[in-house]
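Quick log. Single chain, no ligands specified.
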Amino acid sequence: MKLFFKIISHIFHPIFVPIAGTITYFVITPKYSPLELQSGNILPIFILTIIIPIISFFILKNLGVVRSIFLPGTNERKYPLMIQIALLLMIIIKVIPNNYTLEVYFFFVGLLSATMACLFLIFFKFKTSLHMVGMGSYLMFLIALSIHFEINIIIAISLFTLLTGILATARLYLNRHSRAEVLIGFLIGFGSQLLTIKFWL
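-> predicted structure:
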């Protein structure tokens, strides 16, 4: 069971949420999206949210700032979150305006808000579950896309609701977080997307 929960934690690592949300949008949207538009968003977002954070992690690890990709210590999260905020800002300011998609733009605004909230809580020594922030963000974005485009994707929503519960159980079972950290993480992710939908839904 421990191995299963470790695998779940790796598969649904928060680093994959930005690119997952972007790809999901282009899969779901009934709008015409030329290949140039899709690649103009997906490729730079993949580089900025997966490749660069991985490189940054190894640099920080070599410097002794972090120990694990799961950032177990509260202080370990400070610099990775700051880097993530800078990268999300770059996407919002530079990447998306060149290939503008309203829904993806506000998805990243929500992710930026959630990341800033997590960084703010670190100064109060509170270690938010970033896994649950990611799943909460993605789940709310999925629900919003379903309503926005009037598309029935209830199976996908149900599946990710179940996966969110499994991931929360994994984080608790592995003693990575307390119940409060898991719950608040989910609420931050879900709530940050919920607050942005009034601008595009």
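DSSP finds eight helices and no strands in the chain.
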